[in-house]
Design a protein that fits this description.
elongated, mainly alpha, about 70% helix, single chain
């Protein structure tokens, strides 16, 4: 169930990033990727308990009863799934172009 919910925004963001890359709009795709990477990192840090706020309910027997774990999973759903879609589009475009710049190197004879 969780995988199905995460795959929907990943597919939408994959298609949007693919559309931007076909139109040679690389800068918006990289900006979106950077914002999503920060959100994904924040979600992972909240999920693992590295970032805990003073108002968080931290002691719990149930794994998902702590507020910081709940917020971490929420951040991963909101930012992590689209991050994977944009990254997949950028990597597939890079493979199609044949390198990072996409320019062909000509040999002088």
């Amino acid at each position: 169930m969780l995988l199905a919910l995460a795959s929907m925004p990943a597919i939408v963001f994959y298609r949007a990033a693919e559309w931007c890359l076909r139109r040679r709009l690389r800068v918006p795709a990289y900006l979106v990727l950077a914002v999503l990477a920060v959100g994904t990192a924040c979600g992972l840090l909240r999920l693992t308990g590295v970032i805990i706020f003073p108002s968080d309910h931290t002691w719990s027997v149930d794994f998902f009863n702590a507020s910081w774990r709940d917020e971490g999973v929420g951040f991963l759903m909101i930012f992590g799934a689209p991050f994977s879609g944009v990254l997949a589009a950028l990597l597939s475009r890079r493979k199609q172009d044949g390198g990072s710049s996409g320019a062909q190197i000509e040999e002088k004879t």
